[in-house]
UniProtKB/TrEMBL annotation:
<dbReference type="InterPro" id="IPR017896">
    <property type="entry name" value="4Fe4S_Fe-S-bd"/>
</dbReference>
<feature type="binding site">
    <location>
        <position position="213"/>
    </location>
    <ligand>
        <name>[4Fe-4S] cluster 2</name>
    </ligand>
</feature>
<feature type="domain" description="4Fe-4S ferredoxin-type">
    <location>
        <begin position="177"/>
        <end position="207"/>
    </location>
</feature>
<dbReference type="GO" id="GO:0008616">
    <property type="term" value="P:tRNA queuosine(34) biosynthetic process"/>
</dbReference>
<feature type="binding site">
    <location>
        <position position="133"/>
    </location>
    <ligand>
        <name>cob(II)alamin</name>
    </ligand>
</feature>
<protein>
    <recommendedName>
        <fullName>Epoxyqueuosine reductase</fullName>
        <ecNumber>1.17.99.6</ecNumber>
    </recommendedName>
</protein>
<comment type="function">
    <text>Catalyzes the conversion of epoxyqueuosine (oQ) to queuosine (Q), which is a hypermodified base found in the wobble positions of tRNA(Asp), tRNA(Asn), tRNA(His) and tRNA(Tyr).</text>
</comment>
<keyword id="KW-0671">Queuosine biosynthesis</keyword>
<keyword id="KW-0479">Metal-binding</keyword>
<dbReference type="GO" id="GO:0051539">
    <property type="term" value="F:4 iron, 4 sulfur cluster binding"/>
</dbReference>
<dbReference type="InterPro" id="IPR013542">
    <property type="entry name" value="QueG_DUF1730"/>
</dbReference>
<feature type="binding site">
    <location>
        <position position="157"/>
    </location>
    <ligand>
        <name>cob(II)alamin</name>
    </ligand>
</feature>
<feature type="binding site">
    <location>
        <position position="243"/>
    </location>
    <ligand>
        <name>[4Fe-4S] cluster 2</name>
    </ligand>
</feature>
<keyword id="KW-0963">Cytoplasm</keyword>
<dbReference type="GO" id="GO:0046872">
    <property type="term" value="F:metal ion binding"/>
</dbReference>
<dbReference type="GO" id="GO:0005737">
    <property type="term" value="C:cytoplasm"/>
</dbReference>
<feature type="binding site">
    <location>
        <position position="215"/>
    </location>
    <ligand>
        <name>cob(II)alamin</name>
    </ligand>
</feature>
């Protein structure tokens, strides 16, 4: 007979599949000792640029039991966002695929809450919190620990069967569950992502200088874009997918089935000249529920102006 721990672990993975998650892995909650020194060094090197929030809650980032008192397990999940068609790039500014549709924070959190409600109906009440890029959690570290994938040279989590175009999410709970094991690294000698990055943001295997990243410059940075990005942005006005697009493992990416991730119709038709005429009203209409609203109209306008001036 299966133990309660086994039954709960199997049930959680079945529910994850039912609710549309690609992968589900389980880790024992505790201090991420192997990640502490690496995170400290990354911060000391100022690779986080102006993202000062990365310096906060150091203990919570490394130990979910500090974030969620009494937690015993971290359930890591991945949710596909690879589109069935890319937005046109000819004579158009580019948007990262994850931002084509509605805000994933809202969508995935809703799915997680429904999933947890069903689990509680079958298991009984248990303490938990759900997250998706919404708290100081080292999501990739937990996903790696749970065997969902390995961390590639571009610091993205990669899965053999489905590449890397997916969001990560967590359920941190007080259930005692069976932990999974890490998978092996399958990047080998490939350096396509390092060679393709136009700003040399990939310093070395798995280490990114965030301050050189196009995604950082177009989303996180609130100041003027540094001149060092001149003629290196490759028309990205929000985010960047270059290091993922060239990754050989992403040939296994398959289209998502989430209707709410589909792009606004205007995104399929807008060309550079249209974007240059963007107004606050149009921005609010096109990106009302989109992750692009994170950069605000002023930020997107700045990005478009920077790209336009350097053409």
């Amino acid at each position: 007979m299966k133990s309660t721990t086994e039954k709960y672990s199997t049930l959680i993975k079945a529910k994850a599949k039912k609710f549309g998650f690609q992968n589900c892995g389980i880790s024992k909650a505790g201090f991420l000792e192997s990640d502490a020194a690496a995170l400290e060094k990354w911060l000391k090197n100022d690779y986080h640029g102006k993202m000062s929030y990365m310096e906060n809650h150091f203990d919570k980032r490394l130990d979910p039991t500090v974030l969620v008192e009494g937690s015993r397990s971290v359930i890591s999940l991945s949710y596909n966002y690879f589109p069935d068609e890319k937005l046109p790039s000819l004579n158009a500014f580019k948007i990262s695929k994850y931002a084509y549709g509605e805000d994933y924070h809202v969508i995935i959190k809703e799915i997680l809450q429904e999933m947890v409600a069903e689990l509680k109906e079958e298991i009984g009440d248990f303490e938990c919190r759900v997250f998706t890029d919404s708290a100081p959690i080292l999501e990739r570290s937990w996903a790696r620990k749970s065997g969902i994938g390995w961390v590639g040279k571009n610091a993205n989590l990669i899965t053999k069967q489905s590449g890397s175009f997916y969001f990560l999410a967590e359920i941190i709970c007080d259930l005692e569950l069976i932990e999974d094991h890490e998978t092996t690294d399958h990047c080998g000698t490939c350096t396509k992502c390092i060679e393709a990055c136009p700003t040399n943001a990939i310093i070395s295997d798995k280490i990114i200088d965030g301050s050189k990243c196009i995604s950082y410059a177009t989303i996180e940075l609130k100041n003027e874009i540094p001149e060092s990005f001149t003629n290196k942005m490759e028309d990205w006005m929000f985010g960047c997918d270059i290091c993922q697009d060239v990754c050989p493992w992403n040939r296994f990416s398959s289209p998502h089935l989430q209707e709410r991730f589909k792009p606004n119709a205007l995104l399929k038709t807008y060309q550079k000249e249209d974007w240059k005429e963007l107004t606050q009203e149009l921005f609010s209409e096109i990106f009302r529920k989109s992750p692009v609203k994170r950069t605000k109209f002023a930020g997107l306008e700045r990005n478009i102006a920077f790209l336009s001036n350097k053409e």
